[in-house]
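Hey, quick one: can you model this chain's 3D structure?
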Amino acid sequence: MPPSWDYHCQRVFAFSGAVGIVFCLLAWEVFWPQPPNFAMTGQQTAQFYADHQTGFLIGVTLTAIGMPFLMAWDLQLGAMLRKLEGGQGLVTIVVTVGITSIPLLLCFDCAVWAVAAYRPMDTTPDVTRALSDVSWISSMLIWPPLCMGMILVGILVLKTRHLPGAFPTWLGWFSIFVGCVEPGQAGIIFDKTGLFAPNGLGSWYLAVFTWGPWIVFMSIAQARILAREKATTPTTSTALASPA
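Sure thing. Here's the predicted structure for all 244 residues.
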């Protein structure tokens, strides 16, 4: 493949993270209703899904479309970090696997959400509530690999900050910060209401509004690094040209 093709593909994959987040934010903050009250009865939960059925189904569709963009972005991030890390790049491999597992698992959660919203009033309300619990809780209890990946990204960024093609130092610290926020979702199975309930400010909202900006900032940084590398890399014709 010509170098220009590889460069353009990498740029597309770098921006894919921001594209994926746009799909997710449209899904979750525009069409999709926010997490329900988890203290509701089965009948109340079924009615909630019936009232917001169209929004749920559109949100599920947009979320599912966004997942492959996030996977492409993470693989591009892994390739760039591995180049910086050097050696066998084992830390980068762990990072890439951990972060890529998130959109894969969210694809499963989308299917469960879709089933819950598909016919909420045509089945037993407790079944709808159980499907709702499975989808919401499983979408948040996947935080450990994301937490590990974010923190390791931050460490790699800080350790390689003086190398050519390095990420901004502030992004390393920000990665560690957002990674430390992720454990806020650990408490969702211990309570149905409150700060760290599945719909709490310290779990769902804090995680969404740190995860999204982190991916967008990383996407922008990746695109800028690739552009700088492109600008400083001589073209094939220039490299082969002999001095006059």
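One thing worth noting: The first helix runs from residue 3 to 31.
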